[in-house]
Write a structure and sequence with these properties.
This protein has no helices and 32 strands. The protein has 421 residues and is mostly beta strands.
Length: 421
Amino acid sequence: MKHFVPFLKAFVLVAFTFFYGNSTAQVGELSFSNPSLVSGSAGANGAVYRFPNVNATFDALVTIKGRSSSQVNLTSIDLTSTGFQKAFQPQIRWGSGSVSSAQSWWMEFEITFVNKGTSVATLVDELKVTALDIDGDNSRLNEWVAFHNTNMYKLEANSALNVSNLVHSGVVIGKRFDGIVKEHPGIDTAATELMTTLTYENSSTITVRMGAATTGSASNTNRMYSIWFRDFNYQQPLILPVKLLSFNGNSHNQKVTLNWMVDMNEDADSYEVEKSTNGRDFSKVALVFPTNKQGVESYIYNAAAPAQGKELYRLKLVDKNGTISYSRILAFQAAGAATANTLRIAGNPAGGQLNVSYQTNNRQITLRVLNMNGGTLLQQTVATMTGTNLIGVDISSIAGTGLYILEVVDGPVRTSTRFVK
């Protein structure tokens, strides 16, 4: 990336309060432009910027969460003189723009998606985030970008990026992608060896840390970063997938049951069950150590059902090599708060997975996805328990967007509903 001359912008200060809502959204490409300061001092920790109309239904609130040193400054929250109009492109500077010795620094941003014109957070079913042009200055400096909790990331097979764990207080909290010292001219989406694309599921907030490091003196520490909220095709993609095969849940008689199935069980270090009441802040409620079984293995965890409101669960998988991945989020309502519908799809339009809620008894049911002509596109058999079952159906193999039918065959009873992919 290039060294750019900073420029000034005027901002309007307004009072800001953040709330959380229960809405969900399915998104494709997002557009970050025309930010305004809505809270705090421009460039300071705690400052909140609103990016309006990132898609048709919601805005994004970007908060400066912290920095490695008071020497780290924000030159611009979104540089528009180069790069891509739709990308989030902050410019971050160490000191006055130069450093006299080896140094490392960063600034961290929290990006929260909210209903348009409000501060009410919205859950996003699936979100693709791509960091572009992670390179250097052709001398002693290299840039790096790190993302907190993510479900999956992919790289080019011949990637020039070095991937490591992002660690805070001895705990792995994400992945860090270090670029090379060599500078790639311009901001080029064809340079997939300098890019990574991450997937977030059932999330309203992501946190990204942008930094750089030098091995000696450098005169161009005013660095631009480009984060584009869309997917990209890689010529030889190296995909690091979640080893989770399924993560489903059941609610019955004041009890919540979580069950999950994994592959490569021998590579697991631990499984952590995390709970939240707002969909943003999760805390560990159980630590499950893997069995000695190799290959495919299944696990069950039981908890009390929520006495009131809603409780959300997710699974954190920790591999022996330190890799962390997360499951989708399962939401359980207090008794009497659940919908009366027997079959329901959460998040419609759907992304690569259908999140199905279905009430039945202990038995095996069959879920089928049909096209509008009645043709079966995929079929899955699931063992259910008495009560409300939360089931994930992988529909990533279905090509093309449009209207589809989900049919549940439960003994002699057939129930169906439509959904959009």
